[in-house]
Amino acid sequence: MFYKNLLPVSIALKVAILPAESQKELLEDEGIDDDNVNGWGRNIGINEYQLRRSTGKLNNAPFDTKDALLDKKMGACTTCPFNSAVGALFPEDEQTPTCSNVTCFAHKCDLNFEAQLKVALPLSH
């Protein structure tokens, strides 16, 4: 995407460090897949929120990582085996925890966004 001038270097560098699954999901959010990338004629509009929900960095999570009720099936991130700080061997893993289940992390970001939106825009009767 970068070589086709569809992504600015600042975004391309952030996307490049993501796992392949997350990169693919970001492009799918934009309606792009491997079959139609050559015909894409505009810049890809990946924003900071999309990047944040794809990294799995728990220190920057837009949701409360201690909230076991946000996603009742997965529970709180603080006890999750996908959290690099759980059972960490090195202190830096505890200081900068990362979720290796990026799908769950993104789902919790979306659930949090929906909850915040309901608070901000309550339905009027």
Keywords for this entry:
40% helix, 5 helices, mainly alpha, 125 residues, single chain
Number of helices: 5
Strand content: under 5%
The SS-based structural class is mainly alpha
Overall form:
globular
Order of helices and strands: HHHHH
Query: How far is the N terminus from the C terminus?
Result: 46 Å
* Biggest sheet descriptor: none
Return the average pLDDT rounded to an integer: 81
Annotation, overall tally of beta strands: 0
Low-confidence stretches: none
Estimated radius of gyration: 17 Å
Helix content: 40-55%
**Overall number of domains:** 2
Task: Spell out the blueprint of helices and strands.
Elements: H1 9-16, H2 20-29, H3 48-55, H4 91-95, H5 102-120
Short description:
The protein has 125 residues and is mainly alpha-helical. It has helices at residues 9-16, 20-29, 48-55, 91-95, 102-120. It is 40% helix and 0% strand.
